[in-house]
Amino acid sequence: MTGVPASAAGGPGAPGTRGAAGTSGTAASGAQGPKTPRGGKLTAVAVDQASLWNVANLLTMLRLVLVPGFVALMLADGGYDPVWRAWAWAAFAVAMITDIFDGHLARTYNLVTDFGKIADPIADKAIMGAALICLSSLGDLPWWVTGVILGRELGITCLRFLVIRYGVIPASRGGKLKTLAQGTAVGMYVLALTGPLATLRFWMMAVAVALTVITGADYVRQAIVLRRQGLAERKAAAEEAEA
User: Fold this and answer.
1) What is the pTM for the complete model shown?
2) Which of 27, 63, 113, 181 is the most exposed place for a label (fewest CB within 10 A)?
């Protein structure tokens, strides 16, 4: 799934591998013992490098590149031109769509990489944070809303790292609904809406803020439970070792 041919990875289709396992490989093992092939490390590095440039990671990189473009479009001509705001919304929508697909592709086709694990959440928070800060700086959204949403996101990220020694806090259904609500509400605020649609986006943002707080509290509860279970397991293991 990384796009590397089997021959490059030393797989069954690699040239000479069958012979190496048969005649010449036997002689080598008898003379020097089971040693790693000379090009083994080089092959592994090549596979890792190739796997970095998979579709999921490219979508994550695209989302990162879209952040400064979105900010430029959002603030163009003073930040209140409906045409520029529509283009900014298009960039934001593309970022949100790639957020859905890159994670799905990575899990479905085994394209998960260390780069993706780090870059994906950064890209998510970067585009959402940029949108919220731009909206608040233009006076379209109260700063306390931006503070609640960004504070929750950064706080939960730090919390995950603090309890990762005890286990991983899984993404909940509420968390996914929160992400959908935030993306929809922020997208509606990016557009220069008036009339009933402007009222609708206010209530959509209210739902997003409520889900942000509720799911944040639930993640804190899960972190506390996970830490207690981890400490109990460690204590039990230590007592068993001393017995």
Assistant:
1) 0.72
2) 27
| CA 91 – CA 85 distance, rounded (Å) | 10
What is the structure's pLDDT at 86? 96
To 5 degrees, how large is the angle CA 101–CA 107–CA 108? 85
Q: Which letter does DSSP use for residue 3 in this model? A: S
Number of H helices and number of E strands within the chain?
Answer: 9, 0
What phi and psi, each to the nearest 5 degrees, are found at residue 166?
A: -100, -15
DSSP string, 198-232: HHHHHHHHHHHHHHHHHHHHHHHHHHHHHHHHHHH
Terminal alpha carbon distance of the chain: 48
pLDDT for 70 beyond 50? yes
Q: What is the pLDDT of residue 47?
A: 41
Compare 116 and 205 and report the one with higher pLDDT. Answer: 205
- The percentage of the chain sitting over the pLDDT mark of 90, rounded to a whole number, equals 44
Residue 200 has pLDDT above 70, yes or no: yes
Amino acid sitting at position 10: G
**Among 189, 61, 190, which residue's Cα sits nearest to residue 118?**
61
Long-range contacts of 209-217 (CB under 8 A, 24+ apart): 209/145, 209/148, 209/149, 211/174, 211/177, 211/178, 211/181, 211/182, 212/148, 212/149, 212/152, 212/178, 212/182, 213/148, 213/152, 214/174, 215/172, 215/174, 215/175, 215/177, 215/178, 216/152, 216/155, 216/156
